[in-house]
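note to self: the first set is below, dont mix up w the second
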Amino acid sequence: MLRRGFLPNVGNLLAFEATARHGSVSRAAEELNLTQSAVSRQIQQLEDSLGVSLFHRSRQRVMLTDVGRMYAANVRSTLAELSDATHQAIALSGTRGVLNLAVLPTFGTRWLIPRMPEFFARHPDATVNFGVRLVPFDFVAEPFDAAIHFGQPHWPGAICEHLLDEECVPVCSPAYRRQENIRTPQDLIRATLLQQSTRPTAWAEWFAGAQVELGNPLRGPRFEQFAMVAQAAMAGLGAGLIPQFLITDELASGRLEILFRQSLMSSGAYYLVYPEPKAEAPLVRSFRDWLIAKTRQG
């Protein structure tokens, strides 16, 4: 039997877990959409109720005490279990299923979400919640049932299903091509090269494949997402190397054009990843089958 007096406030636990994970009250406040003072107050309330100090505090940062480190690990897993139980309860109360999916921003907005109406037409009682994660994470500690991952099929404790390879093509706006008089790969030497942060060697590899010597392939503004690179290219800021499947609409409308047939096959690929215990969950299985079929269609 649970003793209610020993169960802390969930809001205080959320504030503590976010601060422990970020090592920063300000970043935790930003994540939780609270003020820093509110987060600090919740942590203080939690410490008062426990009778222990969870953090060492200084002007610049907060650091977990030994007790705080142990407590953070347990709180994180407990909150994940509570979230999962809550979603299951909602699912059983009239909805056929809830799928919490972590996606890469550009893949989600430009490829996946526009295709989701077909999935919902087949599964009208399903709910899919979208979150953003850029790197692999621990499914036990995060409230997700599956994720879209780019890279290699290595994710401890999870199954990786291949979705798409990544073929990047050099593109720019028609106006920028005319402005820079880009006719051959050599002409790109004088162009502004739009860089993608997670593909830092892409331009160097593309120029090597085109047999063009380039002094500094890393020059040019850097962007964290392909959607930003595409927008910058359409705005005439330079030329970008972008996966063709992410810019089909821009190419069809003429807002972007492929400069040359020479493309770059990335060493990584896109995968649907889900923890092994969820492999036979009905909604995960239905989403996996539908998604793989869609990627095979192109």
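second set (the one i keep forgetting abt)
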Amino acid sequence: MPDSKNSRRAACPKWLAGLSRRPDLSSQPKLKWDLFVEQAAFLDLLDQLQGEERIAVDTEFHRERTYFPRVALVQIAWSGGLVLLDPLEIDLSPLTVLLESETLWVMHAAGQDIEVFQRACGTTPRHLFDTQLAAGFMGMSSPSLSALSHRELGFRLSKGDRLTDWLSRPLTESQLAYAATDVAHLLEIHDRLMAGLEARGRLAWAVAECEEMLQREVTRRVPEDAWRRIKEARSLRGEASLVARSVAAWRERRAARVDRPVRHVLSDLAVVAIAQRRPSSMEDLRKVRGIDAKHLKGASAEGILKAVAEAGNLPPLLPDEDRSGGRQQESRAAVTLVSAWVAQLARDLQMDPALVGTRSDIEALIRREKASRMAHGWRHDLIGEPVEELLSGRAALAFDGAGELVLIPRNN
């Protein structure tokens, strides 16, 4: 289905206009790459890449024991070659010039890679095309790069070295080959996805979604929003909700300060338990589920108790932000019905249902939240407008003779 209002198209970014096809890297008899460990060679490479319309980029990093990702390797492929950059030897900050240029960065499942570049270079790609995200507009649900390669190019990629220690040195030939493969075929996959999206009239949708994802990743770790990532905290009400918001924000800041994963600082269970019990003293804190000896020492205990005490200073949530159980209960039947229709529509369009809209997106739309993703852009055209007709009583959902849900106009 082409974009609804069906000839409507977003303005093409500069990188999209006149994009030329690239050589088929998968046809090379043997994959070749250069490993850069010297700053001078890296700077020469950046000069060479200036003016490239697009590059394929990936990173290898560790973050199992840290808050921030520790980048271990950066892979870049373009029309003229493929290089691996060793960030343990090279200062990556000059990449800022390329990140902020008109060059399109083609990446797969780019979320955490974006965070890597934000941390290493202080900025993110100006133009991004995420192949995993784009594949969702063609019926694939968050495919791995290997699965996408198999569908588009006819072969799978090796997974052998995916979980190796990327921070160890020297890296083995097998590790380097694995890393190189992650970008070697991305530009050809990009070509094929672009052609498929164009044929389906969904290219503008995919471009807009990549831009939205980029902005979302840049702001994802705002401490004041940390409570939203704790499922049980989203259903708390009143004072308990305020305490959960305050303690979750403290946990996020503390984790960043000591560079430890947030759940190593304080578990989700402990955040919710603190919100429910609202301790005001060390003795109270000692009795909270999920609190152990490490939390009762120094800065941690003081920080938790201060966060609890200051929770009352937080502004109340706006109606659009309230996810308490009462508001969800009111709209549950409508959300369930619309969710079934949206899932069916996604199947009919051969799109990833989670990309079209999650249950949370549908809840926000039904509550007429202005910030709902379905209140603007391609989702509004595809889902928002029909659901607005439904909510106003001008349309209804009914079953056709084949057991499918259909949206039909109502005669007033």
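remember for set 2: The domain at 223-313 is CATH 1.10.150.80 (DNA polymerase; domain 1).
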